[in-house]
Amino acid sequence: MSKPRIVHLLDDTTTGGVTRVVTHICNSQRLANQAHHEIRVIPKNTADVPVIEADLIVSHLTISWRGLAGLIALRAKHPNISLIHVEHSYTQSFTALNVAKRERFFSLLRTAYSLFDTVVGVSRAQYSWLVTRDLVAAERSCVIRSAVDLSAFAALEAPTGPCRVFGAIGRLEPQKGFDTLIMAFSQCQEPDARLRIFGRGGQHEELERMAQIDPRITLEGHAPDPVRAMSEVQAVLLPSRWEAYGLVAQEALAARRRTLVAPVDGLCDQLEDGAHRVARNTVADWTRAIDASLTADLSKIPDSQARLSERVAGVFERNWEGLIARSLVKELPVAA
Amino acid sequence: MYRATIVVPAFNVAATLGATLTSLQAQTYQDFEVIIVDDGSTDNTKQVAEQFLDDRRFWYIQQANRGLSGARNRGIAESSGEFIGFCDADDLWHPDKLRRHIRHLDRNPNVGVSYAGSQMIDAEGRLLSVKQSPRLRGVTAAHILKRNPIGNGSSAVIRRAVFDDIAYVHHEAYSAFSYFDETFRQSEDIECWLRIALLTDWDFEGIRGLLTYYRVAGDGLSAKTERQLDSWENVIAKHRSLHPAFFARHEPAARAYQLRYLARRAISNGDGKTARAYLKRAWSQSYEPLWAEPIKSGVTILAAPVASLFKVSAPAQKALVKANVPTLRQSSQSPFQPILKGDHYE
């Protein structure tokens, strides 16, 4: 008997992080033993969803009103298989900062989620929000923390000496909060400290202008090799305004870098893996956290961080394996 | 376990605490506990509180002075209720207040902060003509920044989940978690509401009625207005990085409202010169208060020169009162005593 076929749907605007997580699923040997995984890219918000030959479809699409017709079509055209949706985008802080009409937005999410058999949250914090706001029923949802292959990061030398080189890695967009970071870092007194910002995006010019006040801050541009960028810093800072999970934090933790996160959404999940919490996502609190890191002992690495790479990979595969096994057996309604 | 917890921060309030606690005991909804946090009082606040401790729902906690935020944080830390209300120890609650807020929160799962209007009372507990009748629905972060519809510290009943969402560990904090920012001794309310509005997706919504009796202080506060403005500016500066675009858009108008409020406070003190200076600064920030609230702004402008003469004619005073300018009408004190305490917006 041939293996079940699982199709992962992405749309053509899907961000790099999501693509990497899906690729990680497709490359997993353990998951390949269970089923055949493949990626299918469809146009964003298309209503004309094709009929897909598959035993299970996993949506990694971004939900929107314009895309809702497509999701309804997806459900209608695949009545006899399970559909899973992985919510990579929306969180409580996203809603707080971006959504004016919340009731309307929640209606969209409830409607869209109701089309799927299972909705997957990518962090415990996000999952808790999905369930407590009644966006999806607890029995139809679960949490699988996102993961990518961390082995290359784990293979990096652990940083030594006093903590002086701080890194910020990600798209240069307001979401990532690097503007806050530049203001906070410029108030830190240590002359040998450096802040290196890797990435590209719409905020580039604004950040460059802000960074001019302090020669210790440099914009490094896009890092095609994230492992190399990681190797060049001793600590990684994540001041995101919203963040469903925060893969960069996982990479930094696996590379045994000192990792500081804002207490926002999925970044809170990173604390149990060894990240340090910045009290609040304000300039003053970031300055304080950076100052505290200057005197931190980098040789002290929490156990939770040391073997993160293996642990994360195992948990991620096991969770997906379980979800797929459950979803392949779809209970059909009994005819009356 | 009680359904609701009412936190009563108490600092040297022996004169008024009894009435406050009596008003809570008389609530029509009875499934609640009261946590009295004595914030280092030096009068006999403790003796007054002890008279209520026969009621098993009343708890008394003493701590070294940490300020209003510190007292509230302690109260939240000790609370067991699913909903948390606050009642300052000189204010009173309408007997049906708690029941109505709990009904409101039960029926509206997206609402995290439920509030209502307030009726001002004087030192002797007599009703004044001044009311706070805030916007009740469709409240956004911009409304909170500009007009603070919650109004005062004894008005809101808040879901515990909201506090869980904004809890943080303060580097100098006394308790494990902070909710209100203890580094602020003024503007602590607006600081917390703004943080809820910008960091969480809980809705703010008001219910009809004047459900808090808010006691207004009779002491002169004019010297504090500039300091009050400073603390308000600190709140803004602290939060600006959370959402720069939001502040770029709404901050000037918010500052104009704040300055207009200070002008009105100055008028209450009979200081027309200061009032006019504040108004000038207000319009340099934004004209929004003029077109959004023309009557209130117009009356303030007209009242400023009148106040500087320090003698308001009877019709002018009537106009002021009618337009809700804070002046004491029924008190035996001078009509120009400030009647709003603390740093709340009218």
Automatic annotation (TrEMBL), chain A:
Residues 53-151 form the Glycosyltransferase subfamily 4-like N-terminal domain. SUPFAM superfamilies: UDP-Glycosyltransferase/glycogen phosphorylase (SSF53756). InterPro entries: Glyco_trans_4-like_N. Pfam families: Glyco_trans_1_4, Glyco_transf_4. Keywords: Glycosyltransferase, Transferase. The keyword Glycosyltransferase applies. It comes from the Bacteria. One of its GO terms (molecular function) is glycosyltransferase activity. The keyword Cytoplasm does not apply. Its EC number is 2.4.-.-. This is Glycosyltransferase family 4 protein.
Automatic annotation (TrEMBL), chain B:
It comes from the Bacteria. Pfam families: Glycos_transf_2 (PF00535). CDD domains: Glyco_tranf_GTA_type. Keywords: Glycosyltransferase, Transferase. Residues 5-166 form the Glycosyltransferase 2-like domain. Its EC number is 2.4.-.-. SUPFAM superfamilies: Nucleotide-diphospho-sugar transferases (SSF53448). Signal peptide: none annotated. GO terms for molecular function: glycosyltransferase activity. This is Glycosyltransferase family A protein. It comes from Cognatishimia coralii.
